[in-house]
Design brief:
By secondary structure, the chain is of the alpha+beta class. It has three helices and eleven strands, in the order αββββββαβββαββ.
Amino acid sequence: MRINRALKFFLIAIGIMVVIGLIGGCAESSKALSTKNNTKTNSASTPGNFVPWDYRVEEKTVGDLIGVDMTLLPDNQLLANDENYATGDKVWTMSYMNAEMKTDSAGRADVVLSTWTPIKSYKTKAAADADLENLKVLVDTSVDLVGVYKTESSGKFREFAVITLPSGNEMKQPISEERYIKFKDKKTVKVTLETVHDYENYDETMAKFRGWKE
């Protein structure tokens, strides 16, 4: 009787150990699967490079005062009230837009633009324009010409030139047939670029094509 009871307890203990082992194994497998899925999700999400894209100066009306900030009508955007404006005052504001430059798996460039965000207020348009002139600068320079090419559709031809911007990005622009012939044997061409500087880090820039100089 004692032997049967001891054997019974022994078998129960072995059964419990087996169940615990199975539960532990399932938990490890679930954990490993979760880790694998998380790794895949994270690796697929690759943030791009943010660059300054554009600035603009606008006249706004001061709305509600909220602590040390103020709202700007008509959009109710929030901005620091550094000049102690009152509700109803007319002010000039500078807003900025940045761009996220991404590259997909095929190597194609993708640009995602942000919304306009106000960064500074001015009592006069002249003061705002003076800052704007320092942040958006037109420069005449030479850039590498990747090449020119033609496309044809229903007997109509279109000509294009591809140049390399200072950022290293290649950009395509439609051109006239006369410019196509002129550019065919060139390695560099003269252009006008607009250099957009970052407001907080002036050395960070984005060059944008603004026209041909030849």
